[in-house]
Amino acid sequence: MTPPPWAAGLSEARASGAVAPVRRHARPRGAGAPATAGYRHDLDGLRAVAVLLVAVYHVWVHRVSGGVDVFLMLSGFFVGGGLLRSFARGAPVRLRDYLPRLARRLLPALVVVLAAVLVASMVWLPRTRWGDVSGETLASLLYVENWRLAVGEHTYGAADAMQSPLQHVWSLSVQGQVFVGVPLLLLAVWWCTRRWASPARLSAVHATVVVLAVASFFYALVSVRLDQSFAYYDTFARLWEYLTGTLLALAVVRARVSRGWSVVGGWVGVAVLLAAGLVVDGGSSFPGPAALVPVAGAALVVLAGATSDGRLPRGSVSRLLASTPVARAGGYAYTFYLWHWPVLVFAIVVRDRPVGWLAGTAVLLVAGALAYATRRWVEVPLRSATPRPRTDGLRGLRVAVAVAAALAVALPLGWFGQLEIQRRSFSTVDTASFEGFPGAMEVAAPGVFSVEKDATPVPDPVTAPFDVALPTRDECVTYNEDTTVVRCTYGDETARTVVAVVGNSHAEQWVDALSGIGSVSGFRVVTYLKGGCPFSLDTPEENPWQSCRDWNTEVVEELVESPPDAVFTIGTRYSWNDDSIPGNEFVPPGYVRAWEALDAVGVQVVALRDTPWLLESAPDCVAVSNDPTVCAVEATSVLDVRSPADDMELPANVALVDLNDIVCFDGVCPYVQGNRMVYRDNNHLTQAYVRSIAPVLEERVRDVLPVF
């Protein structure tokens, strides 16, 4: 039987004699026979169960199964355990052998999948998605995809047409970092203790593993409470799962369980593993203590196979997992995992709807066929470092993999170059001129400006996501857990009249328009902005995000101490995530409390009704079709007929402004209006459009607030 593929098996640990060579078999021996040289075929079977759990949950259940956590633990059991055994023999792993073998084991299949995803993306995904896929391809190739997702504040979600076809590579990135980082650290400890006696040096290595495991677990516990979406992809928050497997490898050497316990413990472990994804919401709680559930279930299965006589008893789950078909299936776990997610995502894209039982089964079968082909004709032939005759077939295979690797690098870099050219071209477009490209003025002043026929909208759908507001370009926005109040000044910077723009990115998107108005009308615009944090004095029950609450408290204190002439903010919020609130919109109580605090010191508030949130990315739609009947949405599906603020008793200092009769005209919210892209994603306006609606904003604010 070949080494376990997902964990890179014993092969990486053997790279320099990290573990003693064991006799191999083309297939597992009788499931009840003693394990040859300690090789655990039942854990191949466990790997098959884990990867199938991951795939089934992705296809149909849309939850975190815990299978990835099992993979990490098994990686630690095989690779980490092999490393510790090499130290125990006084012959630590040699990096010059270990790292090349690791690369031969993991990279060929990965680059084939990456190249295939790039080609499929060019065929089936809109051009607006190519940049993200290109970035994720390079991140996957460099084994940093987990950090890309973490920094991008990507949260776990069910498979759909908007998900990245490479999102799943985050776990491989974590493993790759651990496969390299842990040996380096342990070798450093071994070198630092070179003057110690061998038993003491080994104890230092073991102690390092224990301390790291405990530190990682408590780090995960705290990180999940502070920022779970970041912790989910954090390598150090996941490290304890790998090191648990490493320590389990030490324990199994000494553990010898009875046949009865093997039967009971093994089945209990599988039951816990199968139930983990149903009883624990891993998407919102992993890798914290909740991840102990699947890890503990897998650990029970590992221990159940360590019987006192070396035989797997009849009726035990270990015997079932070690059976030929199940154990062999585990040999394809790595390649199956690589293929299942992109096949699923592209199936949804092509079908334009989620997969059901029939289509989902087809996804698994296609992924299985691709996994078989990749392992047989790519992974296995290229894995060995032993010199062999250079047959035409092997030479051709190496060329094919080299071409795939070149594609995985060249296509993303080429697309990034094209994006830069398009960005520079867009920067030369005069979006201040309404002629031919009137944007909102097509509705606000019909017939005044011409609309160029068959024109490409500005910005181009590909560059629309980069058409962001001034504060973002000037790095004047606070993000994540930072509570620093950052202020930037726009408009007439010498004016005594001050308008403060306060809130999140939906308030920020109006800064360019307000800056232009202020430059002409003679007022200064000062920004107080934090990503994802609206201007609101919330209770912990209303908003559990503490840094947002702290930031708002500090902003209110500053505005009360040094009152501006007016505050511009967003006055409504969308309620799709709260079934207890009727309609599409509401005014949160925290908003009103913030306005009341300003009313107490005589500060006027302009509360702008938020613009609609779409159910899809506008640039993605327009990149495929510029048909206005296709790339538009009925207003009633994203807006209430009346603003909820109109029917509320609000503080006397609040002036309500609504521009949605322009954004959504005649019952329709178009994605392109007057040859200008309205949205740069599914909820933020492009600055090209904001500049076109600025005259309407100025007129309506001036009607309710003389300072304008």
From TrEMBL:
Keyword Acyltransferase assigned: yes
GO biological process: lipopolysaccharide biosynthetic process
Coiled-coil ranges per UniProt: none
Pfam families: Acyl_transf_3, SGNH
Any one Gene Ontology molecular-function term assigned to this protein's record: hydrolase activity
Statement: the UniProt record of this protein carries the keyword Transmembrane helix: yes
Annotated Acyltransferase domain residues: 41-372
Keywords: Acyltransferase, Hydrolase, Membrane, Transferase, Transmembrane, Transmembrane helix
GO cellular component: membrane
Signal peptide (UniProt feature, chain positions): none
Domain SGNH span(s) in chain numbering: 485-698
InterPro entries: Acyl_transf_3_dom, Acyltransferase_3, SGNH
TM spans (from-to): 67-85, 106-125, 172-192, 204-224, 236-253, 260-280, 286-308, 329-349, 355-375, 396-417
This protein's name: Peptidoglycan/LPS O-acetylase OafA/YrhL, contains acyltransferase and SGNH-hydrolase domains
Organism the protein comes from: Cellulosimicrobium aquatile
